[in-house]
Design brief:
Elements (H helix, E strand, L loop, with lengths): L3 E10 L2 E11 L4 E5 L6 H9 L6 E6 L2 E2 L10 E4 L11 H12 L4 H10 L15 H13 L5 E5 L7 H16 L3 E5 L3 H7 L2 E6 L2 E4 L2
Parallel strand pairs: 3-8, 3-9, 6-7, 7-8
Antiparallel strand pairs: 1-2, 1-4, 4-5, 9-10
Helix pairs in contact: 2-3, 3-4
Length: 212
């Protein structure tokens, strides 16, 4: 049974059709790649899965439950979409602790472990406002994984990373797959897609096509 399923999903913003009759099934414990130019619909598709955008027509299911009807926002999903937003005058650790206190699912040890896992130092007092783009992207991944979700939805997770950072991120995402996570990743890098993904879909003008 698919863990995520889209049935004939269309999304319009006024007269602009951003998703055009998109159907997609994603199997558990897999890495699915989305490729396509900016404006092709990748981010809106991800937001529909997350319940952040409601389709104009069609249905979205996560773990067999219809988003927007049986559930509003699916739980247990880690997310990087667009630029991760953090409090600029807080450290990495304090930023994630603020989020952890809201949801009350994890504590200090899990936050520290997530920060270490992405190659950052939880004891570093440097404010996030002074982070490079690559460091902010690493922190975004730490936020996505810190509650140990079984689904990860990652929009351009390699953005801003140097060569070493990209290699680290690829290795880590493959480890998460081996742990049984289901991952959707959008990337402009064909190499990232080739290394990471079990199946690949191309989006163009709101339509989707499986290419691998």
């Amino acid at each position: 049974m698919s863990i995520i399923k889209l049935e004939n999903v269309t999304k319009k913003f006024r007269d602009n059709i951003v998703l055009n009759n998109v159907s997609l099934e994603i199997e558990p414990c897999s890495v699915t790649g989305l490729i396509g130019r900016n404006g092709s619909g990748k981010t809106v598709l991800m937001k529909c899965i997350l319940g952040l955008v409601s389709p104009t027509s069609g249905n979205v299911f996560v773990r067999g439950k219809q988003v927007g009807k049986e559930i509003d926002i699916p739980d247990n999903i880690g997310v990087i979409i667009e630029n991760p937003g953090f409090l600029p005058n807080f450290s990495a650790y304090n930023n994630l602790m603020q989020l952890a206190r809201i949801r009350r699912k994890i504590g200090k040890s899990e936050v520290r472990a997530a920060i270490k896992q992405v190659g950052l130092d939880p004891d570093d007092k440097k404010h996030v406002g002074k982070f490079s783009l690559g460091m902010r992207q690493r922190l975004g991944l730490a936020q996505a994984i810190m509650e140990d979700p079984d689904i990860l939805i990652l929009d351009e997770p390699m953005n801003g990373l140097d060569k070493e950072g990209v290699l680290d991120m690829r290795k880590y995402l493959l480890e998460l797959k081996e742990q049984g996570k289901t991952i959707i990743v959008a990337s402009h890098s064909s190499e990232d897609i080739d290394v990471l993904c079990d199946c690949v879909y191309e989006m163009e003008k709101g339509k989707i096509q499986k290419i691998r």
